[in-house]
C-alpha cells in the first residue's frame, strides 16, 4: 500500500466533510478550557473507522517512512514505531495543517501566561519554515504498533530547539476488539509535589491533544510551569496502532 492508496481509501470513506471541516467545527473554547485545566483534551471521532484501518494497514509499507525504531533497543519500552517521510499521506497532512492554527492560538495564550516572548506563525508552513531554518528538517509524525506485552515508557517528544507545545495522538484500533490493556497515560509533575497520573479513555478514531513538555498552572502568585509526560500501559493482548501528530520537525 502506498500513499496514494491510503488517500483513496480515506477519501472514499468521507461524505461532504473533509478533515479540515471537521476540525474547524469543534468547540475550541471548550477544548482550550480542558487543556488549561488538565493539560489535555479529548476529541471523539476525528477519523472514521475506514480511515483508521487504512492508516494502520500502511504500517508495513516501507515507502511511507523515513525510519523505524524498536523501543527495546533504546530503553523506550517495548513495541516499535515508524516516522513518516514527506510528503505525508492523507488524511495526516490535512489534519496536521487543520489543527495547527487552533492549537497555535492556545499555545500563544500559554506563552503569555508564562511570560514567554515567543509568537507562533498563523500557519503550519510558517512554523515549519522556522524549524527548517534551524536545521530541523526531518518529519516527526509517526505510526506506533504495540503487540501483547508491549508498552511505552513515560517520555516527551522533544526533537530540537523549536518545540511546538501541543501534540496529538489518534487511536487507530478499537479497545476490546483489537486489543486489551494499552491505555494512554499522562503524568503531571508539579513543583515539590508527587506526580499525578491520568488515564485517557480512547476509542477507535478518537484523538487526545496534550502538552508536549510543560503547561501553565495558576497558583497563589501567578502562573507556574508543570511538566507533563505521556506513555502507554502494557498491552495484555492483541495489536494496537496509534497515529502521533507532532507539529515541529526534528534535527
Automatic annotation (TrEMBL):
Domain Fe2OG dioxygenase: 137-250
Organism domain of life: Bacteria
Pfam families xrefs: Oxygenase-NA (PF09859)
A GO term for molecular function: metal ion binding
Keyword vocabulary terms for this entry: Iron, Metal-binding, Oxidoreductase
InterPro entries membership: DUF2086 (IPR018655), Oxoglu/Fe-dep_dioxygenase_dom (IPR005123)
Family indicated by similarity: Belongs to the iron/ascorbate-dependent oxidoreductase family.
Protein name: Fe2OG dioxygenase domain-containing protein
Organism: Lysobacter capsici AZ78
